[in-house]
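Continuing the batch. This is chain 6 of the set; chains 1 through 5 are on the previous pages. Same settings as before, nothing changed between runs. Recording input and output for traceability.
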Amino acid sequence: MVHLWKAPAPTVKGAAIGFVGTVWRDEVIRGGAPNDVRVYRVSFEPGSRTAWHTHPSWQILHVLSGWGRVQTRGGELLTIGPGDTAWIAAEEDHWHGASPDHHFVHLAIHEALPDGREVDWREHVREEDYR
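Output for chain 6:
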């Protein structure tokens, strides 16, 4: 059996609670029970980024274009680029976004809980930690 997903929602701007700078998100896949997988195409303008956050399940980031950064709390700041894939464990506090001088586009893949929860936002990344 083949399941066909059509783009279910329009492009949305990242909300200030979870992002710094201009970020756009396109929903690619919104699954359903029993495995509610969510896939988003996320586009960051240079210097834009997420706030610190966790996911109740794992998250996979697959870079489509540009150059970005990803970091877990207390971890090394990593630069990621086209073709790179990063895996973040469940409940791992982390952030990701564009490098200061480059656009950045990635697929964000994770699983939502049965109640629909897929992310818990925390504080914004301090500028000195980003740089």
